[in-house]
Design a protein that fits this description.
Blueprint lengths: L2 H22 L15 H8 L4 H7 L2 E14 L2 E8 L2 E8 H4 L1 H6 L8 E10 L5 E12 L15 H6 L1 H7 L1 H23 L3 E2 L5 E2 L11 E4 L4 E5 L4 H9 L4 E9 L11 E10 L3 H20 L3 E4 L2 E4 L5 E4 H9 L9 H10 L10 H12 L8 E7 L8 E2 L2 E12 L2 E8 L4 H16 L10 H8 L5 E7 H9 L21
Parallel strand pairs: 3-5, 6-10, 14-15
Antiparallel strand pairs: 1-2, 1-4, 2-3, 4-5, 7-9, 8-9, 10-11, 11-19, 12-13, 15-17, 16-17, 17-18, 18-19
Helix pairs in contact: 7-8, 8-10, 11-13, 12-13, 14-15
Length: 500
């Protein structure tokens, strides 16, 4: 046992002794509830504007509660700060006000514990808004110390594993998740304002579809069926378009059995939406409107700092085809990007693995990811994706090797993916068959045949535009967070040896 662990264990033992002393004083250390009439946040919002004389004349009596964040005893007087959510409030406790037994018990009450109290508002000599406590109630004992007491919770991995302590000790982290909540709320308001209907679709599916990804597999015992956690809600949302809902959206959880890095977590959040009688250009407009509304209403600015970059969300966003982006950022002549014969030598120069085994469209996508993706810093729509990597998208009439699809890139990350949705059931069948062929060749991320979805399309699906936007990456960009783990409250972590 190292010195830090020994110190922590001694501290915990002392707290257990204090807990026992509180019980022996006839106090329930974990009461059921506390009836307060105002929060610390409301106190600050309402009374911070009052000066010392105004508070004295007001004689405002309050009853509130919170967690003790600091404590300083000075003879027969004690100063504390309590927190309620993001707000801290100072308390002043005097022996002659609360009585000698209650004041003596304060020695057993520590930082991290919860108390409720009544008292009168006033300002100290330093003008801090404070409650003169007349009575207090013990509400809960913290057995373990607050993080700053022993290591400050600076270790990144430990912060992700013990997010509750991270939130207690790092205000910047708290603000990130407050902002995340506000961004999701504003996203919901945006789609409701556009008269989209919010829906819920299955998270366990017989056939995983809507994206190229490996699914997680589970089993339903009663029906003796293997099921998949959804990789995307797309095919069910399109069924709702067939069913007559013209605009639908879902803020959803998806699951993909893939690697973990700064941009990927096996469980993640998206907003996915579909609009009948719309196409890719409409999806671009909606995307620009959504991002500017988030910036205007939540961030209050369209200029955002991300790492050492300054991002601008002024519209319109830049538009490039995939081949234009490769030529611009990869330095490959545009005329070499139109056929496998001229593209393959360039791909080999880039040392793309198994390049000679890939189709033209798959290889073009690999070249784009290699030379251009991370260089797309300002918001940029990349269009004209190869048909091989877009099995659910309408072809471009001028060249049926490409489809009417965009991905939105910001700060080198893909944040959104949109289509003019394929609504021809016979063409969709052919695309599924292409995907099955790719699976047979070893591509376990290729999509499976979904015959029920084909049946739905055969009942008639209107022209439709659809899109998915990654909420986690969006929050990363808008909060200047360099890892997806910084914006997910409880990111996936490999178990520690002592947790196995």
């Amino acid at each position: 046992m190292n010195q830090q662990q020994q110190s922590e264990n001694e501290y915990i033992q002392q707290r257990r002794q204090h807990l026992q002393a509180i019980k022996e004083a006839g106090i329930n250390p974990f009461p059921v509830k506390f009836d307060y009439d105002i929060t610390a946040e409301q106190i600050k919002d309402i009374f911070e504007k009052y000066d010392k004389e105004e508070l004295e004349s007001l004689e405002k009596h309050v009853k509130t509660c919170g967690r003790i964040m600091s404590k300083r005893m000075q003879g027969r007087a004690c100063f504390m700060h309590i927190s309620y959510g993001k707000t801290k409030l100072q308390l002043y406790i005097r022996q002659d006000k609360v009585g000698k037994p209650a004041y003596k018990l304060l020695k057993k009450i520590e930082v991290g514990d919860f108390i409720g109290f009544t008292g009168t508002l006033f300002r100290t000599r330093t003008e801090e808004l404070t409650v003169m406590v007349e009575d207090y109630t013990f509400l809960s004992k913290a057995i373990r110390p607050m993080p700053e007491k022993w290591h400050g919770l600076k270790d990144k991995e430990l912060r992700y594993r013990m997010r509750y302590l991270d939130l207690l000790s790092n205000d910047e982290v708290r603000q990130t998740f407050i902002l995340r909540s506000a961004l999701i709320s504003e996203t919901r308001k945006f789609f409701e304002m556009k008269e989209y209907m919010e829906v819920e679709t299955p998270m366990m599916q017989l056939i995983p579809g809507g994206a190229a990804a490996k699914p997680f597999i589970t089993h339903h015992n009663a029906l003796d069926l293997d099921l998949y956690l959804r990789i995307a809600p797309e095919l069910f949302l399109k069924r709702l378009i067939v069913g007559g809902f013209p605009r639908v959206f879902e803020i959803n959880r998806n699951f993909r059995n893939e690697g973990v890095d700064t941009q990927h977590n096996p469980e993640f959040t998206m907003v996915e939406f579909y609009e009948a009688y719309a196409d890719l250009r409409d999806m671009m407009t909606i995307t620009e409107e959504l991002f500017t509304q988030l910036c205007d209403n939540v961030l209050k600015t369209r200029k955002v700092k991300y790492g050492d970059k300054s991002l601008s969300f002024e519209t319109p966003f830049r538009r490039l085809t995939m081949r234009e982006a490769i030529a611009e950022y990869g330095g490959i002549p545009r005329e070499k990007l139109d056929a496998i014969e001229t593209l393959l030598p360039e791909a080999k120069k880039l040392e793309i693995e198994d390049a000679e085994k890939m189709s033209y469209g798959k290889l073009l996508s690999e070249v784009f990811e290699t030379v251009a993706e991370e260089k797309l810093i300002q918001p940029t729509f990349i269009t004209e994706y190869p048909i091989e990597v877009s099995p659910l998208t309408k072809s471009i009439p001028e060249d049926d090797r490409f489809v009417d699809r965009f991905e939105l890139f910001i700060a080198g990350m893909e944040l959104a993916n949109a289509y003019s949705e394929l609504n021809d059931p016979e063409e969709q069948l052919r695309r599924f068959q292409m995907q099955i062929s790719e699976r047979e060749k070893g591509d376990d991320e290729a999509q499976m045949m979904d015959r029920d979805f084909l049946t739905a399309m055969e009942h008639g699906m209107p022209p439709t535009g659809g899109q998915g936007i990654g909420i986690d990456r969006l929050v990363m960009v808008l909060t200047n967070s360099q890892s997806i783990r910084d914006v997910i409250l409880f990111p996936y972590m490999r178990p520690r040896k002592d947790e196995d």
